[in-house]
Design brief:
Length: 262
């Protein structure tokens, strides 16, 4: 078969359906008589090309990013007798904050109000005077600290951080939430790396909230054992020296020429 005729036969047998845009995450191709001919999972706002071979009634999908299809494309797709359907839609929503057990939105409001006088709010009723003194000491050293204490341990320690974040929406500075053994924090002034370093010293105190808060503040006011900025600068300086040295060695060898040549 001549090449031109072969190309024409292929074009007729594999006639692509014009692109059809969808806003769902899964598409399927259906034959005019019903039944699923092919199925392809694609990304949101993507399009699919569906081509078929009438004799074999097969179909394939080619995925790529394209602009929204025009009305002419939709009419052309309708004329083929094949259609693209979107049987499933997908909705992505951000995960809501998971508060500890027995802590509701009303509890958060009550805790926030309780912080107003001495920057301490406890649901245990213990160590409040000691905690108030620790909060006052932290503030005297430039750390606007608010301490929240809840009884027991939640199912996930991440819920303590969610609670600290909720309280921090109305409080300035740093919020630390203490359970019997875990810690959750939020701050608009202290870096997350430094907060988690301080959290490590406040964990597993078995309900001794004053001890945990004291350890936390002690870490926050202690200078970092190493400066990552200084380490980064040293690494960059060393790399620069190595690159310059290699360039000098290469230039010297080039100027001297091959060994043994005079």
């Amino acid at each position: 078969m001549p090449a031109a005729e072969s190309s024409e036969v292929f074009r007729q047998r594999w006639a692509p359906v014009p692109r059809v845009t969808t806003l769902t995450v899964r598409l399927s191709c259906e034959t005019p008589g019903g039944g699923s001919a092919c199925r392809a999972s694609i990304m949101r706002h993507s399009v699919a090309y569906c081509a078929f071979e009438p004799a074999r009634r097969t179909c394939f999908a080619l995925l790529r990013w394209m602009p929204v299809a025009s009305d002419a494309d939709t009419d052309a797709a309708r004329q083929t007798g094949w259609k693209m359907t979107a049987p499933h839609t997908s909705v992505f929503t951000p995960m809501a904050a998971e508060l500890p057990p027995n802590v509701t939105a009303d509890t958060v409001v009550a805790l926030t109000a309780d912080l107003a006088d001495d920057h301490v709010a406890t649901l245990t009723g213990r160590d409040e005077e000691q905690l108030a003194a620790i909060a006052a000491d932290a503030r005297s050293q430039g750390i606007p600290l608010n301490i929240v204490v809840i009884p027991g341990n939640p199912g996930h320690d991440s819920s303590l951080r969610d609670l600290a974040t909720e309280v921090g929406k109305t409080q300035q500075g740093t919020v630390v939430v203490l359970s019997d053994d875990w810690v959750g924090t939020y701050s608009d002034t202290v870096s997350r790396v430094r907060l988690e370093w301080a959290e490590d010293a406040a964990k597993y105190t078995q309900g001794a909230s004053a001890e945990a808060a004291g350890n936390f503040v002690e870490r926050l006011v202690t200078p970092e054992p190493m400066s990552w900025t200084a380490i980064t600068c040293a690494v960059l300086a060393g790399t620069s020296v190595v690159i310059v040295g290699l360039a000098w060695v290469k230039a010297r060898r080039t100027s001297e020429g091959p060994l043994g040549s005079d």
